[in-house]
Each structure stands twice: as C-alpha cells, then as structure tokens.
Amino acid sequence: MLSAKIYFHNLNFILPSGTSRGILKNKPTWFIKIFKTNSPETFGIGECGPIDGLSLDNVSEIPHKLKLITENINDLSNIDLSLFPSIQFALENAFKDLDNGGKRIIFRNSFLKGFPIKINGLIWMGSKEFMLTQVKKKLDEGFSCLKLKIGAINFDDEIKIIEKIRNQFSSEILEIRVDANGAFNSKNVFDKLKQLDKFKIHSIEQPIGVSKWKEMREICKYSPIPIVLDEELIHIKEKHQELLDYINPHYLVLKPTLLGGFKSTQKWIKTANDNKTKWWITSALESNIGLNAISQLCAEYELELPQGLGTGQLFENNIVSPLTVNGEKISYQKNMKWDLSIFK
Predict the structure, then answer these.
(1) Whether 170 and 289 share a structural domain
(2) Residue 155: helix, strand or coil by DSSP?
(3) How many other CB atoms sit within 10 Å of the CB of residue 68?
(4) Alpha-carbon distance 105 to 83, whole Å?
C-alpha cells in the first residue's frame, strides 16, 4: 500500500540588475512524495514545475489534480493527465526514485559515478550591458558553448553583442547557440537569419511561433543557420514522425518536464535518431530534484552535444544536492548529501 504527500515550494530567482522586465522572479513548484504506508522513511520525490504560459498544464488546476493523485495513489488509471505533462514527469520521477530505494537514483549510469556532462552556458535576456556581463562571466568560467536568449531587446543591439563575442572568439573556440522563442515572423525571419549568419551561429531555436508547420518547413529548407525545434514539440502527442518528416529540422531540444516525462522524451529521441536528427536535452527551470533526474536521463545516451543543464544555479533557495557545476561540466558528487528537510 502506497501513500503520497504534496509539498509546495516557491523557487526564487537570483536576478542581477539589468534583467529584462517581465522575466520570472519566482517559480511555483510542487513536489510529490510517494512512500510505502508502513515504511514512510523510504520515499521517492518527483517535481512538478510547469512554466505558466509555456507548459500545456493549466497551472490553476494543478493543486486539485495533485490532491486527486494523493487520494488515488494506488490506482491512477481513472485520472486523466494527458494535459498535465509536468505532473506526468513528477510521477514518473517519484516512482522511479522509490523503486530504486529512495536515494534519488532514477537511472543507474555513469553520471551517478561522478562522470560529468558537458553543458552550455545560458545567457539571459536583458539590457545590452547585462548580457555582455553574463557573457564575460561564462567565458571566464571556461564555457565553450553559449546559448543566448534573443528577441527581448532591440535586435541591432543583440547583433552587436554577438558581433563583439565573435570578434573575440572564433567559431572553432566558441559555439554560439541562439534561442528566439518564436520572436520572429514570416516577413522578417530570413532577413534576421541572414544577419545572424555572419557570425557563424551554431543553431537557432524556434525562430517563429508554433503550429506553423508550412512556414517552419520553408525556414528549415532555406535557412543559412541550422534550425532547432523546441516549443513546437510540446503540443505533439502522437505525430512525432509526421512532424519530423514534414518540417525536417536540423535539431530538437527536449525538455522532459514539458514533454511529459522520461518515456515521452525517449520516444522523441528514438524518432530523432531514426531520422538522423540531432538533439540535446534541456532542463526547464527545475529545482535540483528535477535537474538531477534529467541529468541521469542524459547519461543514458552517448552525448554528442552540450546539454542545457546549467539552470540549478539560478535559484537562491534551491534544494541542496550533490549536483555541482564546475565550468562547463555538471557532475554528481557522491561525497555530498541531499538536504530534503522540507519534505519531512
């Protein structure tokens, strides 16, 4: 017999001056704790951390859904979670953790043995000065791959930032990825791609908004910069092959929290591999609970590209864990302990 409890935790971002207006200041997050009723000291923890406005989840309904889950934890067959991928991720995470002894072990692989995973350095949108300060910090820390969020400030200023970076570091030394988050449109996208192409950009994520398959197909076909699908994948449940066959993107970015968990992410990976479409996995602003699980998922594969797993450093009240970011590597330090006191 199983029991479950729900915990709420508001993750607070560390926001230096210069951050863009409207950026998240905190992130509401729920955790589900699952344990055998007669031995509550051994438990699995899963994280439900939707991003309002991006996730499929209706955030206002999550507390009610989680209450239903706790009341029916021994038989969830009648609870429809098809529109709640972040809850699906949390449940899969918690059950795998419990099955592996409640030790935050999700997948038994090299990551838990201390083998690091190479990650990109994330540059947040903000003023020109703010973004350049971040770039300098990441370069000083030894990152060889940077991901810049663009589309929030004047595009000419963003081009100047990228130009300044590229003037100092060639493409052989520094890989630059950009993420437009759908900021361009069909009228200006090729002009902007042409301007970006001068600086040997590795790839650009989601240049236009979602559900515009015909337009995205044309962009992928004629873009001078490799195109990455990101938000486009969130709404796809069954048409994985159809999407890749039609749009033919160069890369996929996979976010397990937004896709509905490990099995859903692994389905995308299989489809991508069958199509010879490259991919990388990215966290979606999870705490160290979710980030640990996603990192272990990454280590199930032979990784060719830097992954997007550096977000654990963004919070001032993250859960203390053995996860450590040293330069452009994230690793699991077995000699460090989890602090799970909030789940007592």
Answers:
(1) yes
(2) helix
(3) 15
(4) 27
Write out the residue range of the structural domain in which residue 57 sits: 2-99
CATH number where 159 lies: 3.20.20.120
The predicted structure's pLDDT at residue 24: 66
Determine the 3-state secondary structure of 177 from DSSP: strand
The DSSP secondary-structure symbol of 51 reads: -
pLDDT digits (tens, 9 = 90+) for 232-274: 999 898 899 999 999 999 999 999 999 999 999 999 999 999 9
User: What integer pLDDT is reported at residue 22 of this predicted model?
Assistant: 47
Whether 225 shows a pLDDT value over 70: the answer reads: yes
Residue ending a domain, among 76, 99, 122, is 99
Is 255 a known active-site residue?
yes
- Among 335, 330, 267, which Cα is nearest to 111's? 330
Report CA torsion sign: 107, 108, 111, 114.
Answer: positive
CA 260 from centroid of its chain's CA atoms: 12
* pLDDT band, very low/low/confident/very high, at 287 (cuts 50, 70, 90): very high
Residue with tokens 């970015």: 253
25 is a catalytic site residue? no
Q: What is the pLDDT of residue 128?
A: 80
Domain end position, chosen among 67, 99, 131: 99
Q: What is the Cα–Cα distance from 33 to 157, expressed in whole angstroms?
A: 46
* Structure confidence at residue 214 (pLDDT): 97
Q: Can you tell me the distance from the alpha carbon of 64 to that of 323, in angstroms, rounded to the nearest whole number?
A: 32
User: For the CA atoms of 159, 164, 165, 171, what is the dihedral angle to 10 degrees?
Assistant: 80
pLDDT of 124 above 60: yes
Co-location of 172 and 318 in the same domain: yes
CB 298 within 8 A of CB 77: no
Task: Please indicate, yes or no, if residue 105 is contained in any of the structural domains.
Answer: no
Distance, in Å, from the CA atom of 335 to the CA atom of 137, rounded to the nearest integer, reads 28
Q: Residue 284 has which token pair? A: 């979606």
pLDDT of residue 140 exceeding 50? yes
Point out the catalytic residue in the list 33, 147, 149, 192.
149
Question: By the 8 A CB rule, do 45 and 32 touch?
Answer: yes
- Catalytic position from the list 237, 255, 267, 334: 255
Residue 270 is predicted with a pLDDT of: 98
pLDDT at 21: 43
